[in-house]
Amino acid sequence: MALPELVGLSIGLAMDGTAVAAAQSAAAPRLTGRDVLRASLVFGAAHALMPALGWLAGARLVALISAWDHWVAFALLAALGLKMLVESRHARADPGPQPAPFAWSTLAPLALATSLDALAAGLTLPLLGLGLAASIGCVGATTALLTAAGAYAGRRLGRHLGPRLGALGGVVLCGIGLKTLLEHLSAGPP
After folding, report:
1. What pTM did the predictor assign?
2. Please, what is the end-to-end C-alpha distance for the chain in angstroms?
3. What is the distance between the alpha carbons of residues 102 and 147, in angstroms, rounded to a whole number?
4. For each of the chain's 190 residues, which pLDDT tens digit applies?
5. H or E stretch at 107
6. How many other C-beta atoms can be found within 10 angstroms of the C-beta atom of residue 100?
C-alpha cells in the first residue's frame, strides 16, 4: 500500500473521532483551545494505539492467510466502512445536553469507542505491507489533526456535520478495501 492509501485509510478511520469532536463542540457552551488540544490528544492516542494492537495480531496471522489476504483486507475494510455508513444514517440529530463535553472522563470512553474500528483495520496493515511505526503515526496524527478541525467546524457548523463525516469515512474505507481487492485480483495468481 502506498502513502496515498495509508493517508486515505487514516482519514477514513479518523472520521468517527472527528464527528464526535464536532458534536461535542456543538453541545459545549463554549470551546477553548485547551478543549481542542485535550480532544486531539485523547482521540489521536486512541487511534494510534488500537491499530498497533490490531497490527500485532495481524502480523501473527499473515503467514496463515497470505493466500486470502486481499479478501480479508477487503472484507474488514468494507465491513468497517458499511458500519460507519449505517451508523451515520442512524445518528441522532439531537444528542441532548451533555455535562462537561471535553472532560477527560467524557472524552476517554468516546475515544475508545470510536477507535474500535481502528483496531479491526489494524489487522489489515500487515496484509497490506505497511510498517507499524508509519501506520500508527499516520493514523494517530491524522486523527489528532482532524479531531481539532472537527471541534472547530462543529462549533461553527453545528450538530448536522457529524453524520456526514461518518458517512464520508465509511465511503473512504469501502473504497480502499475495493481498490485493494481489485489490485490483487488484477495481478493474477502468484
Report:
1. 0.70
2. 18
3. 12
4. 577 888 888 998 898 888 888 877 876 778 899 999 999 999 999 999 988 988 887 766 656 666 676 787 788 778 877 876 787 677 655 454 445 788 888 888 888 878 877 887 887 777 667 788 888 999 999 999 999 999 998 877 755 555 566 676 667 768 777 877 887 788 766 5
5. helix 104-114
6. 12
Question: 167 Cβ partners below 8 Å, 6+ apart?
Answer: 84, 85, 88, 89
What are the contacts of 147-150 at 24+ separation with CB within 8 A?
147/14, 147/17, 147/18, 147/21, 147/36, 147/39, 147/40, 147/43, 147/44, 148/21, 148/36, 148/37, 148/39, 148/40, 149/18, 150/17, 150/18, 150/19, 150/20, 150/21, 150/22, 150/25
